[in-house]
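Table S7 (text form). Paired inputs.
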Amino acid sequence: MYPVIAPPAGNARISGPNSGMQSIFFSYFQGLLSNPGCILTLASIMLHMALPVISQTGLPANVLAEWEKKYGKDADLLNGEKYFYPYSRAEGDPFLDREGREATLRIRGKVFGGQMIKYDIYRQQLVLLYEDLYGGTGSLVLRNEWVESFDYGPAAFTRIKGPYEERGYFQVIYEGSISCYRRWTKEYKMDLSSGVQNYYFTEPAREDYLMKEDYLYRYRNNRSFTRIFDAGDQKTVRTYLGQNRLKVKKMSASQMGHLMEYCNSL
């Protein structure tokens, strides 16, 4: 469902200075609805051209004001491909959290708080869950190239260049001279154990990285973690890990944050 279009009922005519343009717009938009993969690049036009029509439906001004306050008057937030879930027969799901979470999104320099999203870590995309002006719900895939960062519950994610030059979402563990990031992934696999072709999603898996001089280095254990540091600091870091009985592959985000504070103090 698309949030800002409210075409007149029955044979009601569109009146006003833009009536001809609005008639053309609604005919064109009706055609777009037949394409389930259409891109909502018309959100900004819809908001400004549909306002005179919306007022004819009797929507209170405060309802429209609250909707605009949450989603904005432009197309930066409500802009993307309508989302359809293609894994109905698979076990599990592609999300970091099945139910999603409230998030603060930063899109093209603008901040949108209080948004419900699901983070698809299999396809590395964000699905926005939104309400239209009439209380209905919808979902769309946000444009990755527009999203700069987002706060997802207690975790912060940013979109940066990965180890193979691709850009993706990474959880921010620590940022400093040497930064620490974590990427979450899932795999979509086939299960033939029962003799029937079934598909399932694996549990979330993490990949841990240090960023040094704008390049990401993956680490899997204490040895690979220590080797990322300058030669003069490697022995100090290795000794610190041993004395405190720390295993980086088992450490939480909070524990890694404290470790990175120490490493950046060297």
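Next pair, protein 2 of 2.
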Amino acid sequence: MKETIEQYWKDTDQQTGNLMMLRQRVLHYSIALSDNWLMSWIPANGRFACDSGQFKIYPLGSDWEVAKWVHYLDKATIKDNLMKSVDIFHQKWNYFFFNWNCEHWARLVSTGDPICYQIPDCPVINVLGVWRRNHHASKQLSDRGGQIGLTSQETLA
């Protein structure tokens, strides 16, 4: 997987490192590797259930859009976080819509904050705050030298 990321990552492309969004029944998030390719965190079974998670690289089609109001890490850090996330999560963590989905992962890699805005910030639904923002994932990335955002750093302190 890391070799494929290296192959498709294009520092000079405009979309590279962007948090990309696809509007389906729910929003699907990915990270652009270039103007033509993106990387996603998906369930191995292809459904939104709890299953072994994996990364997949797709062509970046015209139906994808750049997410708005995102405070990005720099491109070099995003690429470094992508590479580290392969070692940490690929075929090792489960994909689960409520606490570790494509948005949690893509925002962790691109902003350093593993938050999913599709999960309501409601105490009844968001038990102990672990569904909306996955701090365990932040810690895993930080422990491997990845850069996380201020919100995650404050929580880990």
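The domain at 2-150 is CATH 3.90.1720.10 (endopeptidase fold (from Nostoc punctiforme)).
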